[in-house]
Amino acid sequence: MLPEQRKLSILSSAKEMFAIKGYHETSITDIIKRANIARGTFYLYFKEKRDVFDALFDQLLDEINTSVKRVVVGNDQKPPMEQIADNLKRVFQLAADDPELARILFRHAPGLDSITDQKIDNFYAKITALIEGALALGTQMGIVERCDFRLIAVFILGGVKDIVDKITRPDNNLPQIDTLINELTGFVLHGLSER
């Protein structure tokens, strides 16, 4: 096996074990057994378990950052609500396609230590700012009521985080992703009033 493939195998095995047992309960022995490698091979790629966790965590943040695009208005652009729906679809699909990786962000990373908590806070601040910008743009276009953009952005992000967490569960009984997106965007635009 090529070195890069071996490293990916270790990361994949660690991701599975973290998702099953959690970060603290997973040992390097668990990871090397799952990867079917010798202990020395593990240490060729990583100094400690935390390095593996950080690599997986950073990978997820990068994938989500790549998935979420700023809403742009222009003749050659999709309508803003379609762009928002596309963002949601990419994030939900990412969680559905790789639930173990998503569980690392939502279940195992928070509270791990101050450095990880700061990464999470920075990441959520960036996403909140994107949502605020989309709401402000919607207000300028006359499709969103004037509101406390920051508060509503935090509310929306909280709901999205909870849905993503539920998508990663084996007992997920949520509707299909397209239905989720229609419900969410409809709620953001109309609240609970008759549509």
Task: For the structure shown, list the relevant keywords.
single chain, 195 residues, mainly alpha, Arc Repressor Mutant, subunit A, Tetracycline Repressor, domain 2, 2 domains, 0% strand
Radius of gyration: 19 Å
The structural domain count equals 2
What share of residues are in beta strands?
under 5%
- How would you spell out the order of helices and strands? HHHHHHHHH
Report on this model:
- This protein has 195 residues and is mostly helical.
- The chain has 2 domains: 1-47, Orthogonal Bundle (Arc Repressor Mutant, subunit A), CATH 1.10.10; 53-190, Tetracycline Repressor, domain 2 (Orthogonal Bundle), CATH 1.10.357.10.
- The chain is 72% helix and 0% strand.
- It has 9 helices and no strands.
- The protein has helices spanning 3-21, 28-35, 39-45, 49-67, 80-97, 99-108, 114-140, 149-167, 177-190.
- α5 (80-97) runs parallel beside α8 and α7 (114-140) packs across α8.
- The longest helix has 27 residues, at 114-140.
- It is elongated, with a radius of gyration of 19 Å.
- The model has no long low-confidence stretch (mean pLDDT 89).
